[in-house]
Amino acid sequence: MGDMDRNRRMVAIAKQNLIESGEREQLIQLLRTRLLECGWRDQVVMQCKDVVRDVGVENITLDKLIAEVTPKARQSVPDSVKRELLQKIKTSVSNQSSFSTSPFNHN
């Protein structure tokens, strides 16, 4: 198995473990809270309004709006929010890894 396939498999397993443990939902809620606290959501709403105004309400589709706003919205997520979430994900995955290598885990 190549490194790329192995990495994809590990990511899929980690994601599944986060889902099963309920941690994924907690991380999503934390992200929502942090984005609201820093005003990111309001910025994205304003970007959407600007795009609709520039393109015209009769010419805009949801797909066009998403295509236009998504790159800017992703770039505008504060680094502090990204770092906090990444650290929490790393901690969760690390905890999963230590459990999966435990001699008591027979998987």
Model description:
This is Transcription and mRNA export factor ENY2. InterPro entries: TF_ENY2 (IPR018783), TF_EnY2_sf (IPR038212). GO terms for molecular function: transcription coactivator activity. The protein has 107 residues and is mostly helical. It folds into two domains: 67 residues; 39 residues, ENY2/SUS1 (Serum Albumin, Chain A, Domain 1), CATH 1.10.246. 80% of the residues lie in helices and 0% in strands. The protein has five helices and no strands. It is elongated. The C terminus is likely disordered.
The low-confidence runs, each spanning 5 or more residues with pLDDT under 50, are: 101-107
The biggest beta sheet reads: none
Helix percentage range: over 70%
Question: What is the terminal-to-terminal distance?
Answer: 20 Å
Q: State mean pLDDT (0 to 100 scale).
A: 89
Broad shape: elongated
Strand content: under 5%
Give the radius of gyration. Answer: 19 Å
Keywords:
single chain; 5 helices; mainly alpha; 2 domains; 107 residues; disordered C terminus; Serum Albumin, Chain A, Domain 1
